[in-house]
Amino acid sequence: MNTIKLFWKIIKKNRAGIIIYSGIMIAMMLVMTGQNADEQEKEYTKVNIPFAVIDRDDSELSEAIIDYLKVDNKLCEIEDDIKVIRNELFYRNVYYVLVIPQKYEEKILAGKDVKLENYKVKDSAFGYYMDMTVQDYIGTFEIYKNAGYDKDECFKKTSDTLEKKVEVKMLGKEKSGGVRVSHIFYHLMAYIMVALVMQAVGPVLIVVNQKEIVKRINSSSTKFIKRNIEYTCASVGVCLIIWLILNVTANVMFMDELNGTERVCYGLNSLCLALVAFSIAYLCGNMIKKSSVIGAATNVVSLGMSFLGGIFVPLNLFGKGMRQFAKIFPVYWYTKANDMIAGKTVISGTDVLNIVKYMGVELLYAFVLLIITLLLVKNLRNGE
């Protein structure tokens, strides 16, 4: 039987599993894209946290702390009773209860270290936020007191300092560095592409590399080089079908968002990555002996490269050492090229050279991995 026909016959036999796996991965990709898009659209808003204060000191300092907490939060009145406090927290009527002890102001002015008692809803972010807010005021007040200011000046300077707020603005799509939903989609394509190609091509290569089938093919007149060229061509064909499906999906979904330059550049960059995915799948398919192992290998390779290559964690969050380490993964160069393509209607000459360089690195990875695989396969066959 012709090796290409054998290859496609196995693909056809496994088509149900491949289609199901592909559907799951593409659906996952769409969900992840949608979640990222929703997060980008969220506006920053302050939360009005219900809180209460048990003021046993009734001093200027305790009143100043309460006034500061009331600025962005809701003050609730409750009894100074532990049962009442616990009930209010349990029913979420309040999320935080601050207890200011007697002679608190006197001890603070005397330079003593006094810890405030508080009750908060367990594991609630609101409670820890209120802790920090209280500490902001007390810490600022103590700084001015230690600097030698009298009590009245400490209150005034603390109030003036804490009134200075940082203005928070959410960047729109046009100001966010070109990070749009289409860009997220093409970023995630790296993870999905590698996983799909490995899952589609890997099991087939494992089957055709079984000893019985290899012996039968070796007994024919088909030469080693010809046989591997045919397997390579068939694998590349599967890879290109997956690449085409993903790119058509992207172009249909983001018809109004992507311009012509982006479509071409994203397409070429993802094609380079598709060839990298093919070379990885070809290596794994020839080295792994059991079909049951290919699933685990797919997860390790696709997830590992995505995390370390800037797909799930943006490259600008990487430290210097981590960024240097990430360069050994082909997905890093795919991400770099994508970042330069995003939002560009016209790409400058310098950017074109850089994008071509990044794509060239991807192709180099694909070529080197393919050569290594062919050499390993030939040595293994000769060893047998």
Briefly note the structural class of the backbone.
mainly alpha
**Oligomer description:** single chain
Shape: elongated
Number of domains: 2
Fraction of helical residues: 55-70%
Question: How many individual β-strands?
Answer: 4
Number of helices: 15
Mean pLDDT: 82
For the largest beta-sheet, the strand count, sense and barrel status come to:
4 strands, mixed
Instruction: Assess the beta-strand content as a share of residues.
Output: under 5%
**Largest sheet: spatial strand order:** 2-1-3-4
Please provide a written account of the structure.
- By secondary structure, this protein is mostly helical.
- It folds into two domains: 3-40 and 174-383, no CATH class; 50-163, 3-Layer(aba) Sandwich (abc type-2 transporter like fold).
- Helix content is 69%, strand content 4%.
- It has 15 helices and four strands.
- The protein has helices spanning 3-13, 15-41, 60-70, 82-90, 104-109, 125-146, 151-163, 181-208, 211-218, 224-253, 260-287, 291-308, 320-326, 330-341, 349-383; strands spanning 50-55, 74-75, 96-100, 117-120.
- Strands 2-1-3-4 form a four-stranded mixed sheet, with helices on both faces.
- The radius of gyration is 31 Å and the shape is elongated.
- Mean pLDDT is 82; it is low at 171-178.
Provide a quick synopsis of the model.
This protein is mainly alpha-helical. It folds into two domains: 3-40 and 174-383, no CATH class; 50-163, 3-Layer(aba) Sandwich (abc type-2 transporter like fold), CATH 3.40.1710.
